[in-house]
């Protein structure tokens, strides 16, 4: 069964993951801006209980 032979495919997978992890990912992460931390205290949402029409 040629699908079980990892000889050519393992090297291709390893090369593509190393390329992504070491080259592409750092370049992409420079464009992603994180939300700045907020100093406000999060307010609890006011919820009202649901009135079921059949009870």
UniProtKB/TrEMBL annotation:
Membrane topology: Single-pass membrane protein
PANTHER family: ATP SYNTHASE PROTEIN 8
Family statement: Belongs to the ATPase protein 8 family.
Biological process terms in GO annotation: proton motive force-driven ATP synthesis
Biological source species: Ploceus nigricollis
Keyword annotations of the record: ATP synthesis, CF(0), Hydrogen ion transport, Ion transport, Membrane, Mitochondrion, Transmembrane, Transmembrane helix, Transport
Protein name stated in the entry: ATP synthase complex subunit 8
Keyword Ion transport: yes
Pfam families named among the record's database cross-references: ATP-synt_8
GO MF, one example: proton transmembrane transporter activity
Record has Oxidoreductase as a keyword: no
TM helices/strands, residue ranges: 6-24
Subcellular location: Mitochondrion membrane
Entry GO CC: mitochondrial membrane; proton-transporting ATP synthase complex
InterPro entries on file: ATP8_metazoa, ATPase_protein_8
